[in-house]
Amino acid sequence: MTRPLQISVIIPCWKDESHLDRLLLQLRRAEAEDGVPLQIIVVDAATSEHCHRLCQRLDALWSPAAPSRGEQLRQGAALAEHDVLWFLHADAHLEGQPLAAVRYAIEGGATGGYFAFRFSDTHDWQGRMIERLVAWRNQVGVPYGDQGIFARRAAYFTVGQHAPWPLFEEVPLVQGLRGHGQFHRIEHGLRISSRRWKRDGWWRRTWRNRLLALGFMLNISPFTLARLYAGKNAPSSGATGEDTPEERL
């Protein structure tokens, strides 16, 4: 009998323990329903003792790191032991059977894939409109990391991993995976928190994200874009401790 594909989940974190706690519990419940051992790796850019204790309590591997999401994801991938790598943001919401959905896509021949962009906690018309705009963008561009990108382990390393950047780290990875084979979209199983859109304003945040993407398309360095974004979110402008340059659509 063929052994079921096992999944390593990699979660970059930066001072987001309250959301991480919920996600780890959801993952452990999903693992129990799935019946296949799951490896969870949390790569903590804040080197938080709170995060460390949380990971110990929920049997996740905790790995301290420098605050750059591309580097965090690469570090987590290097620690992964299983056949499939699934990259999640700490504030992701799981529903249904996402582990089985990821495994089904890979067993069906996909090199990797992502989940449809759907908010978890809003029924506002602005949110619904942004969901449709992101669905269109995914057809002509690249899904971002908050959409739960996953990949067969061998393919991930073959195409070069995430770029070691603080922004747009998944762009060369997704392009490489699409060139390497089928890149599969999963319709249900993952939802995205709308908290930052509600905090910043639906269209203000979306417009800011598109400006960053335009700058990247014009070959402005991701490090320069990250510094520009960090400047706009300095404490004097009312940013909270959970804001980082990596937080974007």
Give a verbal description of the structure.
The structure is a single chain. It is globular and about 50 Å long. By secondary structure, it is α/β, with parallel strands linked by helices. A 7-stranded mixed β-sheet has the order 3-2-1-4-7-6-8, sandwiched between helices. Strands 5-9 form a two-stranded antiparallel sheet. The chain is built from 10 helices and 9 strands. It has one domain: Spore Coat Polysaccharide Biosynthesis Protein SpsA, Chain A.
If strands are numbered along the chain, what order do they take across the biggest sheet?
Answer: 3-2-1-4-7-6-8
Order of helices and strands: EHEHEHEEHEHEHHEEHHH
Question: How much strand?
Answer: 15-25%
Shape: globular
| Mean of residue pLDDT values | 90
Which CATH class? Alpha Beta
How is this structure best summarized?
By secondary structure, the chain is an alpha/beta fold. The protein has helices at residues 17-34, 49-57, 69-79, 98-107, 125-140, 153-158, 171-180, 195-200, 202-217, 222-232; strands at 7-13, 38-44, 61-64, 84-87, 93-94, 110-115, 150-152, 182-186, 190-191. The protein has one domain (7-199): Spore Coat Polysaccharide Biosynthesis Protein SpsA, Chain A (Alpha-Beta Complex).
